[in-house]
Amino acid sequence: MSALTAFFTARADQVRTGQADDGVDLTFGDPHELPLPGLVAALEAHLRPRSVDWFAYKASEEPARAVVAAALREELGLAFEPADVAMTQGAFGAIALALRLVADAGEEVVIPAPGWFYAPMIRVADLVPVSAALEAETFDLDLVAIERALTPRTRVVVVNSPANPTGRVYPRRQLEALAELLEDASRRLGRRIWILSDEPYRRIRFDGVAFVSPAACYPWTLIDYSYGKVLLAPGQRLGYLALSPLLPDAQREALRAAFFPTQMAIGWGFPDALMQYAVPDLEDVSIDLAALARRRDRMVAALGAWGYRLTRPEGTFYLWGAAPGGDALGFAAALAARGVQVMPGTLFGWPGHFRICLTATMEMLERALPAFEEVAAGAAAPDVDAHG
């Protein structure tokens, strides 16, 4: 966590002091243009109080849960009910809730590598993160690596699709194979292993790539989701945790009953009133996926022409690639010296790669391209003996 904290703090200091004003920031999934009009309109529509309790304590409000359940039924083809949904402060809140619901102190959570920053949240929940590498070339699920990571203390396996940072979307056949693996392991170990399906980028996909949730393949699945990605508004915290409707009735009812007391105990982990009122209006609001695809295609074509090895993302708004020379920190520093900031793969446990965030404008990406070309040319230049 210290490396991530240092990176985030350094970027925040640069923004605060104006050092980043003339540069190109391709690190975090922040907006670089004014908010979506649909988001602003939704918040404005519900800002003025309509009753004395408009801003009173809110738990998971029933209108918001009903909208989410209906959307999940349509998207995933599963019989979600409002009671299967807990409204949360973004995906962070949903993940924290999921860990507290199904895992006890000292148990293990298997996380993908490269992957998002799950480990600190797992440790804070008194659990133990265990890394399982993805396939080295394709970044698909590596079932052999996952099986090796399982122990008698394993309680949760995290699946992130579309995946941050690689952009991979896992097909049904991989998820069905994982479900079979975890069913066999649960039976063998005598305890249930859960899947936490991290789906904040579920609606950000390209080229008609289909999405299948593990919840459709494995009943013991919890889904976390954040509206902050598709709205490109991570500062407005809104998300949810949802139970797979395929869960056996007894476990489904037990988890439903545990939502409220657990969220209350971990710090009143519900979204603010205004965000919950806005849910019906936000369901159809989205960043421009076609524009995002054009940015992806521009960067993939340009960097590919200069010899970069990239994973063409099927989803998310990131581009994942191998750092020239295999040194992510050195590569990021070389770009930073030219006014371009990228996220080194060291922060994802993958020190030979880097991540570009495509939420930047096309103008920003065009300004960044000469730096990528210069660094690639420098990495490709042959060493010269100083003595001739």
Automatic annotation (TrEMBL):
One of its GO terms (molecular function) is transaminase activity. Residues 65-370 form the Aminotransferase class I/classII large domain. The keyword Transferase applies. Its EC number is 2.6.1.-. InterPro entries: Aminotransferase_I/II_large, NHTrfase_class1_PyrdxlP-BS, PyrdxlP-dep_Trfase, PyrdxlP-dep_Trfase_major, PyrdxlP-dep_Trfase_small. It comes from the Bacteria. Keywords: Aminotransferase, Transferase. It is an enzyme of class 2 (transferase). Its cofactor is pyridoxal 5'-phosphate. The keyword DNA repair does not apply. Belongs to the class-I pyridoxal-phosphate-dependent aminotransferase family. This is Aminotransferase.
